[in-house]
């Protein structure tokens, strides 16, 4: 496997693509996928994602990074080079609802979710057997108002020990503290069970029912300090009607939730998502 | 044409369907479509819509209504019998945006919208030529803060003169006063250019852009005194991404707006929509 | 639980609904859901599905059936009364692909699929462990051209022993013989991995790729003697583009396949699907 | 307006993107949109579309093309440079159905369809008034089996006189001869009223009804000598059910047809569609 990808953002100006692609060509790389976006060709921010094949990329990664540094400096780039088979370690946080967790486990088992699910953390003991049957460690860390700070400290310790890159909140029903969020900026992905910004906060299906909406949705977003206000990665909806009670909405919603979360995580792990202010650029 | 429909709501209890269908059978009618819904079989409200064929229904309508009255009284029904070819008179309110108006005019011209578009009222003169080319009267009633009461009085006078049954706000950019709304309860249909309850109020596409949503939508609802809070009839969405600026959202949104409004109006005119509290039952 | 449902088809003529609903009222039943359809009010076939609550329905089922028989005879009805908690026994046939099987098992475990999954039969041994972990018997019956008749005889014996009502082909890659199909008329549900009638037969994703379609689909249908030609219960699609190779189409398609099959099976088990000629009426 | 776009296809090999983007940089251009695709990085075909801003591009176009020629030769490119405000001239062919034609006219009037609708040609006189009210010439050329060759000769003469670039068959119910098609390779866009390859040929809605499908669709494709077999540009579907008769399918289908055709044409006019064998690459 000789595939890699580079993700770049920098002030927009002429010559960026030429500089990067010429560099890659000189390194013997062949570009296989290219995506770019500029918030404004005049004075905006430019985003570039290139996927390329390059012989011996694994051995040459550091050398290529060193060679690229001057170009990056010239264009004031924030950038990152990642090998295609540099599989990232993720932790999944769950409470009692299992549908999102299971979807991720099944996709992982089927080889569709390319990640190393290193750990599942839950504030409830219920899903231990399910998770362990996949050969994945399950850590039960109860959370109460009193123990929350200690619980988060324990979670952070575990996430470090396991060298976790990305945290997935798969219907984890606890709000993370700003301190916790600050430890993993842009690396915590949540699934909210509504079409944000409609029905921010608790009980969205009950509120959707009360409002009489004709579509329900789910939203996957990065977690920030503002509840349900982080950058949206993906959303989807399903049709409902007057016959559906809140329990029906929950049942129908489960399919959207798990699909949307899995899609967002997949894009994140493939470095297709760039956070820009409170929005995302998604190169899918 | 011997088709008619009856729309009923009443407290739920056993025997309603039997009573109504037996009555129709005795009148020589054959039921061709039936829809029902109960908020709760125990003590809830029951809704029934029957479409049926009945020889000479036009001549016999009053006689049948009189014969049905005792049944209606027994079950405490709110009800209404309407002939299939009793075409309703509607007025369309517009401002400057033409896409929703045009969709309704085209569907009407193509025989898909079964209504008598008796009148178009606008607070701007811009669309006069378009409307008049369809042979429909166009009345320009300017509205300013100072003249609003007078303008509404003039509108109401016209709506009465033209015997208007249903008012369609096809991107009419004025808020109607409670007094106006009270004149046409459950008979004013609006299209809001967002997926309510997200982005209630002004500039929804700009706010959708700022929030970075991945789907935009439109909502058709009955107008009540609470802005954008009335019973929702229909909603739909379309996918957008980071490349779309507010103008793109508006362009993409136009297709959803006009489609959703036309669908909602069609259901309303076919007596498929029942308002129940702040929600709708839609028998489509 | 006092809920039941009656499913009726008969020649259309006035008075059917009145007769049935009056009968149910006399039995003390309250109708909670009603669906009907006529292929033609003049001389067509009429279909009726009523869901109702009736005290002591379990004890009184035979008595009610006997009392209904004269009405059924008068209107030449084919009909069937089923208690809501009369859970049907199903068998799932699989080969090697697990996604459809797993979706059904998970929905069953989550209480969303109301059925008794009595048995899984496969022509391969691969999924034994998965199935048995759900506490469900797994029977491996290899099928070759030479052994097919014997294998089907063995399958039929098992299906009878287990008193199987409905057979689900969850990506079972063998064609059933006409003799087998004749044993379970209208009770074998298949999922085909294309938007029928496009790509009937083998390798639909490869052929979709070759044709360059922009949407792929899946179709759940009743099995008849004509391959992929049986009455369609449900279909759905997903968007694809030029970047997707057959393996991508298969991955994207898996989600549609399992969703469509689960939906079709759910409707079948709730007696919402009526086969009429080579089409279905679905009262969802 | 200084925007332009270049569309390139050539054998894939390392260095293409670097060569093209370096060239553009040297010309003072800033790339604002980039899309690429390779059928196979090893020995496949590479496709590139770049949109860029370049001062004085209108005046410098020929000079830039000349300067680019050696690069194009080196990489064996098929390529084309087009200014953003080089509006293409199109002709619309219609018969009696007006919905697709009207959608294009309305989008054109609203400034959403960036093209010069130079001419409408029809084998029927019906839509003359509609078309002429938009200030567009309408030419009625009747077509019978006997006059078909003459009619096509007359059409071709007109298309040349009017310097037509792209022909849109907006539900034109005549099959074009191979000779006609050969005159406009890759420049005739058709809308077929089914989800191809299902229901190729005549009466697709009737056949969809007979088959009992649960979704109907429309397909926009380039016209080739094989009826309904040309490269697909875009497809979409809508949900239907057992209650829908062929006339309902036609009504529902009209919305899909016009939407799909308008989308395909828009992409074509923006040079986002590349024909590759019997498939398309669409860079939307």
Secondary-structure map:
The structure is a homotetramer of 284-residue chains.
Chain A: E1 3-11, H1 16-26, E2 30-38, E3 45-53, H2 57-74, E4 78-83, E5 89-94, H3 99-109, E6 116-122, H4 128-132, E7 138-140, H5 148-161, E8 166-169, H6 178-183, E9 188-192, H7 204-211, E10 215-222, E11 232-239, H8 246-269, E12 273-276, E13 279-282
Parallel strand pairs in A: 5-6, 5-8, 6-7, 8-9
Antiparallel strand pairs in A: 1-3, 1-4, 2-3, 9-10, 10-11, 12-13
Helix pairs in contact in A: 3-8, 7-8
Features:
7-stranded mixed beta sheet; Alpha-Beta Plaits; 284 residues; 13 strands; 2 domains; 8 helices; homotetramer
Structure description:
4 copies of one chain form a homotetramer. Chain A is α/β, with parallel strands linked by helices. Chain A has 2 domains: 3-83, 2-Layer Sandwich (Alpha-Beta Plaits); 89-282, 3-Layer(aba) Sandwich (Rossmann fold). Chain A is 34% helix and 29% strand. In chain A, the strands form 3 sheets. Chain A has a 7-stranded mixed beta sheet. Chain A has a 4-stranded antiparallel beta sheet with strand order 2-3-1-4, with helices on one face. The longest helix of chain A has 24 residues, at 246-269. Chain A starts with a strand and ends with a strand. The model of chain A has no long low-confidence stretch (mean pLDDT 95). Chain B binds chain C through residues 12-15, 17-18, 21-22, 24-25, 28-36, 38, 41, 53, and chain C through 12-15, 17-18, 21-22, 24-25, 28-36, 38, 41, 53.
């Amino acid at each position: 496997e000789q595939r890699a990808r580079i993700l770049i953002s920098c002030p927009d100006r002429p010559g960026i693509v030429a500089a990067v692609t010429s560099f890659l060509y000189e390194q013997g790389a062949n570009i296989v996928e290219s995506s770019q976006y500029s918030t404004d060709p005049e004075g905006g921010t430019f985003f570039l994602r290139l996927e390329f094949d390059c012989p011996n990329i694994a051995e040459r990664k550091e050398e290529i990074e060193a060679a690229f540094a001057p170009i990056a400096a010239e264009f004031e780039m924030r950038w990152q080079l990642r090998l295609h088979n540099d599989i990232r370690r993720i932790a999944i946080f769950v409470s009692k609802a299992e549908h999102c967790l299971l979807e991720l486990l099944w996709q992982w088992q089927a080889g569709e979710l390319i990640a190393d699910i290193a750990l599942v953390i839950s504030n409830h003991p219920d899903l231990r057997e399910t998770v362990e049957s996949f050969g994945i460690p399950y850590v039960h860390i109860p959370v109460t108002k009193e123990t929350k700070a200690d619980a988060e400290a324990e979670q952070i310790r575990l996430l470090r020990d396991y060298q976790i890159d990305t945290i997935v909140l798969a219907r984890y029903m606890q709000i993370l503290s700003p301190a916790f969020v600050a430890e993993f900026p842009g690396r915590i992905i949540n699934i909210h069970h509504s079409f944000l910004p409609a029905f921010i906060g608790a009980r969205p299906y009950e509120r959707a029912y009360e409002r009489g909406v004709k579509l329900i949705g789910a939203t996957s977003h990065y977690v920030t300090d503002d509840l349900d206000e982080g950058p949206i990665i993906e959303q989807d909806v399903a049709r409902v009607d007057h016959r559906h009670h809140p329990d029906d909405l929950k049942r129908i919603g489960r399919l959207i939730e798990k699909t949307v979360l899995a899609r967002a995580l997949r894009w994140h792990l493939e470095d297709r998502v760039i956070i820009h202010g409170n929005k995302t650029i998604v190169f899918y």
